[in-house]
Predict the 3D structure of the following.
Amino acid sequence: MSVVTNDRRLLTPEQIAGLAPDHATLRGARELAGGDNWLSSGYHHSDGRRLLWAEFPESRRPATQTAITLPTLRAACHCAALRFPCRHVVALLLRDDAGRLEPAQPPPWAAGLTRARSAATKPAAPATDDRRRAALLAGMADLHLWLADLTRHGLADLPRRDRRFWNDMADRLAGSYAVEAARELRELALIPGSGPHWPERLLPRLGRLALLAEACRHLDDLPPGERGDVLAAAGRPPRPADDLVADDPVADDWLIVGRRQDTVNRQHRERVWLHGLASGRWALLSDTYTIGRREGVYLPAGATVGGELAFLPSAAPLAARAAADLQLCPTSPGEQPVAGDLDQAIAAYAAALAANPWLRVYPLALAHVTLEPPATAASTWRVRDGGGRWLPLPPRFAHGWRLLALTGGRPMTLFGEWDGATFTPLSVYWDGWRALAGWRGLP
Protein backbone atom coordinates (compact mmCIF):
# COMPACT_ATOMS: atom_id res chain seq x y z
CA MET A 1 0.00 0.00 0.00
CA SER A 2 1.27 3.46 -0.78
CA VAL A 3 1.85 6.18 1.80
CA VAL A 4 -1.60 7.69 2.36
CA THR A 5 -2.95 9.57 5.38
CA ASN A 6 -6.67 10.40 5.55
CA ASP A 7 -6.95 9.65 1.82
CA ARG A 8 -4.37 12.34 1.08
CA ARG A 9 -0.94 11.23 -0.08
CA LEU A 10 2.22 12.28 1.67
CA LEU A 11 3.95 12.09 -1.72
CA THR A 12 2.48 12.01 -5.19
CA PRO A 13 4.21 10.26 -8.12
CA GLU A 14 5.06 13.68 -9.55
CA GLN A 15 6.74 14.72 -6.30
CA ILE A 16 8.69 11.46 -6.12
CA ALA A 17 9.88 12.00 -9.69
CA GLY A 18 10.93 15.51 -8.67
CA LEU A 19 13.47 14.06 -6.24
CA ALA A 20 15.64 12.86 -9.14
CA PRO A 21 18.61 15.20 -9.60
CA ASP A 22 18.62 14.72 -13.38
CA HIS A 23 16.78 13.02 -16.23
CA ALA A 24 19.10 9.99 -16.36
CA THR A 25 18.41 9.22 -12.69
CA LEU A 26 14.65 9.48 -13.20
CA ARG A 27 14.72 7.27 -16.29
CA GLY A 28 16.77 4.63 -14.46
CA ALA A 29 14.46 4.80 -11.45
CA ARG A 30 11.36 4.20 -13.54
CA GLU A 31 13.00 1.21 -15.23
CA LEU A 32 13.96 -0.23 -11.85
CA ALA A 33 10.54 0.39 -10.33
CA GLY A 34 8.83 -1.48 -13.16
CA GLY A 35 11.27 -4.41 -13.14
CA ASP A 36 11.03 -7.71 -11.26
CA ASN A 37 14.65 -8.48 -10.45
CA TRP A 38 14.69 -7.05 -6.92
CA LEU A 39 16.35 -9.43 -4.47
CA SER A 40 14.17 -8.33 -1.55
CA SER A 41 11.93 -5.44 -0.56
CA GLY A 42 9.32 -4.52 1.99
CA TYR A 43 7.99 -2.01 4.47
CA HIS A 44 7.49 -1.95 8.22
CA HIS A 45 5.50 0.38 10.51
CA SER A 46 6.85 1.14 13.97
CA ASP A 47 6.39 4.09 16.37
CA GLY A 48 4.65 6.20 13.75
CA ARG A 49 7.42 5.69 11.20
CA ARG A 50 7.45 3.71 8.01
CA LEU A 51 10.66 1.99 6.94
CA LEU A 52 11.08 0.99 3.29
CA TRP A 53 13.94 -1.19 2.10
CA ALA A 54 15.13 -3.07 -0.96
CA GLU A 55 18.13 -4.99 -2.28
CA PHE A 56 19.10 -4.70 -5.93
CA PRO A 57 21.34 -7.22 -7.75
CA GLU A 58 24.72 -6.10 -9.11
CA SER A 59 26.69 -8.12 -11.64
CA ARG A 60 30.17 -7.73 -10.16
CA ARG A 61 29.55 -6.19 -6.75
CA PRO A 62 27.61 -7.04 -3.62
CA ALA A 63 23.91 -6.29 -3.79
CA THR A 64 22.94 -2.63 -3.44
CA GLN A 65 21.07 -1.98 -0.20
CA THR A 66 18.61 0.93 0.00
CA ALA A 67 16.48 2.13 2.91
CA ILE A 68 14.13 5.08 3.48
CA THR A 69 12.28 6.23 6.59
CA LEU A 70 9.01 8.14 6.41
CA PRO A 71 7.68 10.68 7.22
CA THR A 72 11.17 12.24 7.53
CA LEU A 73 12.34 11.11 4.05
CA ARG A 74 15.73 10.07 5.40
CA ALA A 75 17.31 7.88 2.71
CA ALA A 76 20.48 5.82 2.43
CA CYS A 77 21.95 3.64 -0.32
CA HIS A 78 25.16 1.67 -0.89
CA CYS A 79 25.37 2.28 -4.64
CA ALA A 80 28.17 4.13 -6.42
CA ALA A 81 26.04 6.94 -7.86
CA LEU A 82 27.74 10.33 -8.09
CA ARG A 83 24.53 12.23 -7.38
CA PHE A 84 21.90 11.64 -4.73
CA PRO A 85 19.06 10.75 -4.38
CA CYS A 86 20.07 7.88 -6.65
CA ARG A 87 17.83 5.81 -8.92
CA HIS A 88 17.44 3.14 -6.22
CA VAL A 89 15.95 5.62 -3.73
CA VAL A 90 13.54 7.07 -6.28
CA ALA A 91 12.60 3.57 -7.54
CA LEU A 92 11.85 2.37 -4.01
CA LEU A 93 9.50 5.32 -3.42
CA LEU A 94 7.81 4.79 -6.79
CA ARG A 95 7.23 1.11 -6.06
CA ASP A 96 5.84 1.93 -2.63
CA ASP A 97 3.48 4.48 -4.19
CA ALA A 98 2.29 1.82 -6.65
CA GLY A 99 1.47 -0.53 -3.74
CA ARG A 100 4.07 -3.11 -4.75
CA LEU A 101 5.78 -3.47 -1.37
CA GLU A 102 4.69 -6.10 1.15
CA PRO A 103 4.79 -5.76 4.96
CA ALA A 104 7.69 -7.67 6.51
CA GLN A 105 10.17 -7.58 9.34
CA PRO A 106 13.09 -5.39 8.20
CA PRO A 107 16.58 -6.86 7.95
CA PRO A 108 19.09 -5.45 10.46
CA TRP A 109 21.01 -3.52 7.81
CA ALA A 110 17.90 -1.52 6.79
CA ALA A 111 17.43 0.22 10.13
CA GLY A 112 21.19 0.61 10.47
CA LEU A 113 21.50 2.51 7.20
CA THR A 114 19.05 5.22 8.18
CA ARG A 115 20.32 5.47 11.76
CA ALA A 116 23.90 6.06 10.62
CA ARG A 117 23.22 9.61 9.49
CA SER A 118 21.93 10.70 12.90
CA ALA A 119 25.16 9.61 14.53
CA ALA A 120 27.27 11.20 11.81
CA THR A 121 25.66 14.65 11.95
CA LYS A 122 26.03 15.65 15.57
CA PRO A 123 26.75 19.38 15.98
CA ALA A 124 30.40 20.30 16.12
CA ALA A 125 31.78 20.86 19.60
CA PRO A 126 32.18 24.55 20.52
CA ALA A 127 35.98 24.28 20.49
CA THR A 128 35.93 22.75 17.01
CA ASP A 129 33.53 25.42 15.78
CA ASP A 130 35.72 28.18 17.22
CA ARG A 131 38.75 26.75 15.40
CA ARG A 132 36.84 26.71 12.13
CA ARG A 133 35.78 30.32 12.55
CA ALA A 134 39.36 31.34 13.36
CA ALA A 135 40.60 29.45 10.29
CA LEU A 136 38.02 31.18 8.09
CA LEU A 137 39.02 34.63 9.32
CA ALA A 138 42.69 33.79 8.77
CA GLY A 139 41.92 32.67 5.23
CA MET A 140 40.02 35.88 4.51
CA ALA A 141 42.95 37.90 5.90
CA ASP A 142 45.20 36.10 3.40
CA LEU A 143 42.71 36.96 0.65
CA HIS A 144 42.87 40.63 1.68
CA LEU A 145 46.65 40.64 1.14
CA TRP A 146 46.38 38.67 -2.10
CA LEU A 147 43.88 41.15 -3.55
CA ALA A 148 46.07 44.07 -2.50
CA ASP A 149 49.02 42.51 -4.37
CA LEU A 150 46.86 41.90 -7.44
CA THR A 151 45.73 45.55 -7.43
CA ARG A 152 49.29 46.85 -7.18
CA HIS A 153 50.40 44.78 -10.18
CA GLY A 154 47.34 45.75 -12.26
CA LEU A 155 45.05 43.68 -14.46
CA ALA A 156 46.84 43.86 -17.81
CA ASP A 157 48.74 40.59 -17.47
CA LEU A 158 45.89 38.54 -15.96
CA PRO A 159 44.95 36.87 -19.30
CA ARG A 160 48.48 35.46 -19.44
CA ARG A 161 48.44 34.18 -15.88
CA ASP A 162 48.33 30.44 -15.30
CA ARG A 163 45.07 29.17 -13.80
CA ARG A 164 47.05 28.13 -10.74
CA PHE A 165 47.43 31.82 -9.88
CA TRP A 166 43.73 31.82 -8.98
CA ASN A 167 43.29 28.21 -7.91
CA ASP A 168 46.11 28.23 -5.36
CA MET A 169 44.43 31.06 -3.47
CA ALA A 170 41.01 29.44 -3.91
CA ASP A 171 42.36 26.18 -2.47
CA ARG A 172 43.73 28.04 0.54
CA LEU A 173 40.33 29.61 1.11
CA ALA A 174 38.52 26.29 0.79
CA GLY A 175 40.96 24.74 3.24
CA SER A 176 40.08 27.44 5.76
CA TYR A 177 36.30 26.84 5.38
CA ALA A 178 35.78 30.00 3.28
CA VAL A 179 34.13 27.89 0.59
CA GLU A 180 31.91 30.62 -0.88
CA ALA A 181 34.83 33.03 -1.27
CA ALA A 182 36.79 30.19 -2.91
CA ARG A 183 33.95 29.52 -5.33
CA GLU A 184 33.76 33.21 -6.26
CA LEU A 185 37.50 33.32 -6.92
CA ARG A 186 37.32 30.29 -9.21
CA GLU A 187 34.51 31.94 -11.16
CA LEU A 188 36.58 35.12 -11.49
CA ALA A 189 39.44 33.08 -12.97
CA LEU A 190 37.30 32.50 -16.07
CA ILE A 191 36.82 36.20 -16.85
CA PRO A 192 40.28 37.60 -17.85
CA GLY A 193 40.63 37.52 -21.63
CA SER A 194 37.10 36.13 -22.12
CA GLY A 195 35.89 39.06 -24.22
CA PRO A 196 36.57 42.64 -25.25
CA HIS A 197 35.15 44.12 -22.02
CA TRP A 198 36.38 41.59 -19.48
CA PRO A 199 37.91 44.22 -17.12
CA GLU A 200 34.49 45.86 -16.72
CA ARG A 201 33.04 42.51 -15.68
CA LEU A 202 35.94 41.57 -13.42
CA LEU A 203 36.44 44.77 -11.43
CA PRO A 204 33.02 44.97 -9.70
CA ARG A 205 33.30 41.39 -8.51
CA LEU A 206 36.87 41.87 -7.34
CA GLY A 207 35.68 44.92 -5.43
CA ARG A 208 32.87 42.96 -3.82
CA LEU A 209 35.34 40.25 -2.75
CA ALA A 210 37.71 42.88 -1.35
CA LEU A 211 34.84 44.45 0.59
CA LEU A 212 33.98 41.03 2.02
CA ALA A 213 37.58 40.48 3.12
CA GLU A 214 37.59 43.91 4.75
CA ALA A 215 34.30 43.17 6.52
CA CYS A 216 35.81 39.99 7.98
CA ARG A 217 38.57 42.08 9.53
CA HIS A 218 35.92 44.04 11.47
CA LEU A 219 33.55 41.17 12.15
CA ASP A 220 33.20 41.76 15.88
CA ASP A 221 32.21 45.39 15.30
CA LEU A 222 29.16 44.45 13.21
CA PRO A 223 25.59 43.97 14.49
CA PRO A 224 24.56 40.30 14.83
CA GLY A 225 22.53 40.21 11.61
CA GLU A 226 25.24 41.78 9.46
CA ARG A 227 27.86 39.58 11.13
CA GLY A 228 25.84 36.53 10.14
CA ASP A 229 25.59 37.74 6.54
CA VAL A 230 29.36 38.28 6.30
CA LEU A 231 30.11 34.81 7.68
CA ALA A 232 27.63 33.21 5.29
CA ALA A 233 29.04 35.14 2.30
CA ALA A 234 32.53 33.90 3.15
CA GLY A 235 31.34 30.33 3.45
CA ARG A 236 30.49 29.53 7.04
CA PRO A 237 26.82 30.07 7.84
CA PRO A 238 26.44 30.86 11.54
CA ARG A 239 24.55 28.36 13.65
CA PRO A 240 21.62 29.31 15.86
CA ALA A 241 23.70 28.17 18.85
CA ASP A 242 26.46 30.68 18.05
CA ASP A 243 26.94 33.84 20.06
CA LEU A 244 24.89 35.48 17.33
CA VAL A 245 21.23 35.61 18.35
CA ALA A 246 18.77 34.20 15.83
CA ASP A 247 15.00 34.70 15.88
CA ASP A 248 12.85 32.26 17.81
CA PRO A 249 12.11 29.11 15.78
CA VAL A 250 9.09 29.42 13.50
CA ALA A 251 6.61 26.53 13.66
CA ASP A 252 4.61 26.07 10.48
CA ASP A 253 3.63 23.75 7.68
CA TRP A 254 6.23 24.44 5.01
CA LEU A 255 5.55 24.00 1.31
CA ILE A 256 8.66 22.86 -0.57
CA VAL A 257 8.63 25.03 -3.66
CA GLY A 258 11.95 24.26 -5.33
CA ARG A 259 15.23 22.35 -5.10
CA ARG A 260 18.52 22.96 -6.82
CA GLN A 261 21.72 20.92 -6.95
CA ASP A 262 25.04 21.82 -8.53
CA THR A 263 28.59 20.54 -8.33
CA VAL A 264 31.80 22.55 -7.96
CA ASN A 265 35.19 20.90 -7.43
CA ARG A 266 33.72 17.58 -6.29
CA GLN A 267 31.43 19.35 -3.85
CA HIS A 268 27.68 18.97 -4.24
CA ARG A 269 25.58 21.91 -3.12
CA GLU A 270 21.86 21.60 -2.57
CA ARG A 271 19.36 24.36 -1.86
CA VAL A 272 15.77 23.71 -0.85
CA TRP A 273 13.31 26.61 -0.82
CA LEU A 274 10.30 26.46 1.49
CA HIS A 275 7.34 28.77 2.07
CA GLY A 276 5.42 28.90 5.35
CA LEU A 277 1.73 28.37 4.69
CA ALA A 278 0.71 30.28 7.82
CA SER A 279 3.66 32.63 8.38
CA GLY A 280 4.15 33.51 4.71
CA ARG A 281 7.94 33.41 5.24
CA TRP A 282 10.49 32.15 2.76
CA ALA A 283 13.13 29.78 4.12
CA LEU A 284 16.26 28.28 2.57
CA LEU A 285 17.74 24.96 3.69
CA SER A 286 21.18 24.43 2.19
CA ASP A 287 23.74 21.65 2.37
CA THR A 288 27.20 21.02 0.95
CA TYR A 289 28.73 17.56 0.77
CA THR A 290 31.41 15.66 -1.12
CA ILE A 291 30.67 13.49 -4.14
CA GLY A 292 29.89 9.95 -3.08
CA ARG A 293 27.73 10.67 -0.04
CA ARG A 294 25.26 7.83 0.26
CA GLU A 295 22.66 9.25 2.65
CA GLY A 296 20.64 12.32 3.51
CA VAL A 297 17.21 13.88 3.91
CA TYR A 298 15.73 14.95 0.59
CA LEU A 299 12.57 17.01 0.22
CA PRO A 300 10.72 17.14 -3.13
CA ALA A 301 9.04 20.15 -4.67
CA GLY A 302 5.32 20.19 -4.00
CA ALA A 303 5.45 18.25 -0.73
CA THR A 304 4.59 19.84 2.61
CA VAL A 305 6.55 19.31 5.82
CA GLY A 306 5.66 20.32 9.35
CA GLY A 307 8.12 21.47 11.95
CA GLU A 308 10.15 24.32 13.39
CA LEU A 309 12.79 26.24 11.47
CA ALA A 310 15.41 28.35 13.22
CA PHE A 311 16.40 31.26 11.00
CA LEU A 312 20.08 32.08 11.00
CA PRO A 313 21.19 35.59 11.97
CA SER A 314 20.84 37.94 9.01
CA ALA A 315 19.72 41.44 8.18
CA ALA A 316 17.30 39.78 5.74
CA PRO A 317 16.71 36.26 7.14
CA LEU A 318 16.31 33.46 4.60
CA ALA A 319 18.75 30.70 5.57
CA ALA A 320 17.42 28.36 8.23
CA ARG A 321 18.05 25.08 10.00
CA ALA A 322 15.46 22.54 11.07
CA ALA A 323 15.15 22.52 14.85
CA ALA A 324 14.20 18.82 14.61
CA ASP A 325 13.35 16.37 11.84
CA LEU A 326 10.72 17.80 9.52
CA GLN A 327 7.71 15.54 9.01
CA LEU A 328 5.90 15.07 5.72
CA CYS A 329 2.29 16.28 5.83
CA PRO A 330 -0.59 15.18 3.60
CA THR A 331 -0.33 16.99 0.28
CA SER A 332 -2.98 19.41 -0.91
CA PRO A 333 -2.61 20.10 -4.66
CA GLY A 334 -3.88 23.66 -4.24
CA GLU A 335 -1.09 24.77 -1.93
CA GLN A 336 1.19 27.39 -3.43
CA PRO A 337 2.96 30.49 -2.16
CA VAL A 338 1.64 33.93 -2.84
CA ALA A 339 2.97 34.80 -6.27
CA GLY A 340 3.00 38.26 -7.76
CA ASP A 341 4.03 40.09 -10.89
CA LEU A 342 7.58 41.05 -11.77
CA ASP A 343 7.37 44.49 -10.21
CA GLN A 344 6.41 43.04 -6.84
CA ALA A 345 9.06 40.32 -7.07
CA ILE A 346 11.90 42.68 -7.96
CA ALA A 347 10.80 45.15 -5.28
CA ALA A 348 11.03 42.37 -2.67
CA TYR A 349 14.47 41.41 -3.99
CA ALA A 350 15.65 45.03 -3.87
CA ALA A 351 14.55 45.37 -0.24
CA ALA A 352 16.37 42.17 0.72
CA LEU A 353 19.51 43.22 -1.17
CA ALA A 354 19.50 46.61 0.54
CA ALA A 355 19.49 44.84 3.90
CA ASN A 356 22.01 42.16 2.90
CA PRO A 357 24.41 43.27 0.14
CA TRP A 358 26.00 39.78 0.10
CA LEU A 359 22.77 38.16 -1.07
CA ARG A 360 23.55 35.88 -4.03
CA VAL A 361 20.15 34.41 -4.90
CA TYR A 362 16.59 35.28 -3.98
CA PRO A 363 13.36 33.25 -4.37
CA LEU A 364 10.83 34.53 -6.88
CA ALA A 365 7.34 33.07 -7.36
CA LEU A 366 5.93 34.64 -10.52
CA ALA A 367 2.22 34.35 -11.32
CA HIS A 368 0.58 34.59 -14.76
CA VAL A 369 3.83 34.62 -16.70
CA THR A 370 4.66 33.20 -20.12
CA LEU A 371 7.87 32.06 -21.76
CA GLU A 372 9.37 33.56 -24.88
CA PRO A 373 11.94 31.59 -26.89
CA PRO A 374 15.18 33.26 -28.01
CA ALA A 375 14.65 35.67 -30.88
CA THR A 376 18.19 35.20 -32.20
CA ALA A 377 21.07 32.79 -31.67
CA ALA A 378 22.70 35.31 -29.34
CA SER A 379 19.63 35.90 -27.15
CA THR A 380 18.11 33.82 -24.34
CA TRP A 381 14.73 32.62 -23.15
CA ARG A 382 12.64 35.21 -21.33
CA VAL A 383 9.84 35.08 -18.79
CA ARG A 384 7.27 37.84 -19.30
CA ASP A 385 4.32 38.99 -17.21
CA GLY A 386 1.01 40.45 -18.36
CA GLY A 387 2.34 44.00 -18.17
CA GLY A 388 5.11 43.31 -20.67
CA ARG A 389 7.93 43.27 -18.12
CA TRP A 390 10.43 40.46 -18.54
CA LEU A 391 13.46 38.75 -17.01
CA PRO A 392 16.18 36.85 -18.90
CA LEU A 393 16.76 33.16 -18.25
CA PRO A 394 20.25 31.58 -18.19
CA PRO A 395 21.92 31.15 -21.60
CA ARG A 396 21.84 27.34 -21.36
CA PHE A 397 18.30 26.96 -20.03
CA ALA A 398 17.19 23.61 -21.46
CA HIS A 399 13.54 23.27 -20.40
CA GLY A 400 11.88 26.10 -22.30
CA TRP A 401 10.33 24.00 -25.05
CA ARG A 402 8.98 21.46 -22.56
CA LEU A 403 7.42 24.23 -20.49
CA LEU A 404 5.77 25.61 -23.62
CA ALA A 405 4.50 22.13 -24.51
CA LEU A 406 3.13 21.62 -20.98
CA THR A 407 1.30 24.94 -20.83
CA GLY A 408 0.45 25.40 -24.48
CA GLY A 409 1.84 28.91 -24.19
CA ARG A 410 -0.76 29.86 -21.57
CA PRO A 411 0.17 31.85 -18.44
CA MET A 412 1.60 29.80 -15.57
CA THR A 413 3.18 30.18 -12.14
CA LEU A 414 6.95 29.71 -12.09
CA PHE A 415 9.26 29.47 -9.12
CA GLY A 416 13.00 30.00 -9.34
CA GLU A 417 16.08 31.88 -8.22
CA TRP A 418 17.01 35.43 -9.21
CA ASP A 419 20.69 36.38 -8.94
CA GLY A 420 20.33 39.97 -10.07
CA ALA A 421 21.07 39.12 -13.69
CA THR A 422 19.14 35.97 -14.66
CA PHE A 423 16.11 34.06 -13.42
CA THR A 424 16.59 30.27 -13.15
CA PRO A 425 13.25 28.38 -13.06
CA LEU A 426 13.25 25.40 -10.68
CA SER A 427 9.59 24.36 -10.67
CA VAL A 428 6.28 25.12 -12.34
CA TYR A 429 2.79 25.07 -10.86
CA TRP A 430 0.57 23.21 -13.29
CA ASP A 431 -1.94 20.89 -11.63
CA GLY A 432 0.47 20.84 -8.70
CA TRP A 433 4.14 21.69 -8.40
CA ARG A 434 6.49 20.02 -10.89
CA ALA A 435 10.27 20.10 -10.50
CA LEU A 436 12.21 20.72 -13.70
CA ALA A 437 15.43 18.90 -12.73
CA GLY A 438 14.27 15.46 -13.89
CA TRP A 439 13.09 16.69 -17.29
CA ARG A 440 15.07 15.83 -20.37
CA GLY A 441 16.81 18.96 -21.59
CA LEU A 442 16.32 20.24 -25.12
CA PRO A 443 18.54 22.78 -26.91
